[in-house]
Write a structure and sequence with these properties.
Elements lengths: L10 H9 L22 H7 L1 H5 L11 H18 L5 E9 L4 E8 L9 H6 L22 H7 L1 E10 L2 E8 L2 E9 L7 E8 L11 H14 L4 E4 L2 E3 L5 H9 L8 E4 L7 E8 L6 E6 L2 E2 L5 H18 L5 H5 L2 E8 L19 H18 L1 H35 L6 E2 L15 E6 H11 L5 E6 L12 H5 L1 H10 L12 E5 L4 H17 L1 H5 L3 E5 L3 E4 L4 E4 L2 H11 L4 E4 L8 H4 L8 E4 L7 H10 L4 H15 L1
Helix pairs in contact: 2-6, 4-6, 9-11, 16-20
Length: 639
């Protein structure tokens, strides 16, 4: 896990500040005339309004941060070449620049190479490229004429080299401005293709660092989505022969109740569909959806159409009108489609909006699932057993839920220990920043209550340590009053579709009890609401451990290294305070730690199959292996 560091003012923000009109000398409404109208070039606009093109900026601690979007846009071009039958290998390397808080990225594909005479235009002039020509690119995964230009504009160094038929062209840019270019014939034979080298601009992406795990995951997904394509990242190769089948097997391993189902359709005027599916004994559902190689974390019409077709295929095969929730409970599936004209609901392409694709995806999925069940009768029997088991559990769970709701009504009209905010996830843009802090005890939540933003920040206070729910039936969490109250506060007492907040932040003290409560909560979410973790909804709040101050200056430090550095800079007269609990930090101080500079550690899992093993080791019965692990680490810490 990486830590999101406080954002610093970038040159872009300073530039934006300069564009604002200054008040007139008399203090009245600013003068608004022809002199105030400004025209920006395309590259200037990208730098000034970066978020419009790549979403969030960040520092590399989150897989959705801008530096990974830049990397993706360059790799996408190589993948487009592969899709069109040109080049089966892409090389990616990332090298940190010592003491600069930056890194240089290189991506080399072995496709056709950018046409030499249009090299400069293709990487620097908006709306220029071959992605608009269906004869050249049918299923583009990039930003359709924007991607590489955005990388160029947002890089302090950008170099591109194209090789075609023994000739080459090279161009070097700085923040989108051409420094030099050259063309010529190669002295030795080099394979055709394109090399892009760039260094994200530290003025925009402040103090950033690439996380190799994030890049490996992204590169691995490219391999799964493009069977036969080999990608190398810093020398490590990734290749898949069975596409989404390999992806799902990597995620589920031996947890599957029956062998993975798989289908890959042919290219058609509508597009191409590839699916893989199975069931596990885990609670909830888990889906991995992609459009033209783009991971759609928020799903969209292709995913909803798959779910509908999946249900209909099973109902048709078994000739029974099974309920959707009984079929889908425990489902793990992957869906990938290729479209000529995908329509996304945002520039960052997290959710597909095409409504015209529903019919053919539903029909093709239905036929594929039904056909697979006919060919795999033993798997069909296990699937039917799972559905029947789900029906029984749902009936039992509904009875327990009803009792829990009735008990909650007797306690109070409002949810105990919840201090709500005004906007919630269902409120569109206003709810995108909605956050609920889950804290331990009233004293810990006191500082947050006094300093929070009541429009978007809610607090739910636990009474202390919650129950360890590892290995227990789902009905047990509804019989636990505190856990049920927390589920009602989050809006997930029925299912995750009712989630009321964009972010769930675990805010516990930085001591052993706090860490234990954190583990208990993570066990709860990973056991029963795993999709909240995999969809990036769960975070851990980082608060400062130390305060170093003099009469003139105060600094807050999150670790011993920062503390020592601050003490050295402020001198021997500085006073050092160690914070043990959230309640020790005054509301006045705490406000800055949950505001714009909030530090959140996203909770994520590398593969789903690792979750049961990890939970069993840390939260299961006290095994000799765990005792040995604890003793070994206690000895090492003491040493």
């Amino acid at each position: 896990m990486a830590v999101k560091k406080p954002a610093k003012k970038t040159a872009v923000k300073k530039q934006a500040a300069k564009v604002k009109a200054k008040p007139a000398g008399n203090g009245k409404t600013p003068v608004y005339d022809e002199s105030k109208i400004k025209t920006l070039s395309s590259l200037e606009h990208i730098r000034l309004r970066t978020g419009m093109y790549i979403g969030r900026l960040g520092d590399g601690s989150n897989p959705d941060d801008g530096i990974y979007v830049l990397l993706k846009e360059v790799i996408d071009n190589g993948v487009d070449e592969f899709i069109m039958g040109n080049g089966k290998h892409i090389e990616v390397s990332v090298k940190d620049i010592a003491k600069a808080g930056a890194a240089t990225v290189k991506v080399r594909d072995f496709g056709r190479g950018i046409p030499l005479g249009k090299l400069v235009e293709c990487v620097s002039v908006i709306n220029t490229g071959a992605k608009y020509n269906d004869d050249v690119f049918q299923f583009s995964v990039g930003l359709n004429g924007v991607g590489t230009k955005a990388v160029n504009a947002l890089s302090v160094h950008f170099r591109v080299v194209a090789v075609r038929n023994g000739e080459f062209a090279e161009a070097v840019f700085e923040r989108g401005k051409l420094l030099n270019q050259r063309k010529g014939k190669l002295k030795e034979k080099i394979k055709d293709g394109t090399l892009v080298e760039f260094t994200p601009d530290p003025q925009i992406f402040t103090d950033y660092k690439f996380n190799p795990e994030f890049i490996e995951k992204r590169v691995q997904n490219y391999a799964y989505l493009n069977a036969g394509l080999t990608l190398a990242f810093n020398g490590k190769q990734f290749v898949s022969k069975r596409g989404l089948f390999d992806l799902l097997y990597e995620e589920t391993g031996d947890d599957s109740l029956y062998p993975l189902g798989y289908y890959r359709g042919e290219h058609s005027p509508s597009g191409q569909l590839e699916i893989a599916f199975t069931h596990t004994n885990n609670y909830g559902e888990e889906y991995f959806s992609f459009v033209n190689g783009q991971f759609t974390s928020d799903g969209g019409t292709h995913l909803s159409a798959f779910k509908e077709g999946f249900l209909k295929g099973i109902q048709t095969f078994f000739k029974k009108d099974y309920r959707s929730e009984d079929v889908r409970e425990g489902t793990t599936a992957a869906v990938a489609i290729k479209l000529k004209n995908p329509v996304f609901e945002s520039q960052t392409k997290n959710k597909l909006g095409n409504s015209d694709i529903r019919t053919w995806i539903v029909q093709e999925t239905r036929n594929a699932v039904e056909d697979w069940l006919h060919k795999n009768p033993e798997a069909g029997k296990k699937l039917e057993q799972k559905i029947v088991s789900n029906e029984s559990l749902r009936t039992e769970l509904n009875a327990v839920k009803k009792e829990a709701r009735e008990a909650a009504k007797k306690v109070a009209l409002n949810i105990p220990k919840l201090k709500d905010c005004k906007f919630h996830l269902e409120d569109g843009k206003d709810g995108e920043a909605s956050t609920i802090f889950v804290t331990e005890g009233d004293s810990a939540s006191g500082s947050i209550v006094s300093s929070r933003d009541v429009m978007t920040q809610a607090i739910f206070s636990l009474r202390g340590k919650v129950e360890n729910v590892y290995g227990k039936k789902r009905t047990s969490i509804y019989k636990n009053e505190e856990l049920f109250n927390m589920m009602m506060a989050l809006g997930i007492e029925n299912d995750v579709e009712g989630l009321r907040y964009a972010r769930i932040v675990i805010a516990t003290d930085a001591d052993f009890d706090g860490f234990h409560i954190r583990n208990l909560l993570l066990t709860f979410f990973l056991s029963y609401f795993e999709e909240l973790v995999t969809s990036g909804r769960i975070f851990i709040l980082e608060t400062p451990l130390f305060r170093v101050r003099t009469k003139k200056e105060t600094r807050y430090c999150y670790n011993e290294k920062e503390r020592d550095a601050a003490a050295a800079e402020l001198g021997s007269q500085s006073e050092i305070t160690r914070f043990k609990g959230l309640g020790e930090i005054s509301p006045k101080e705490f406000g800055q730690f949950i505001g714009e500079d909030i530090r959140l550690v996203p909770v994520s899992v590398n593969t789903l199959k690792a979750v049961p093993q990890v939970l069993n080791f840390y939260m299961g019965k006290n095994t000799p292996e765990r005792r040995e692990y604890i003793m070994k680490n206690l000895i090492e810490d003491a040493g």
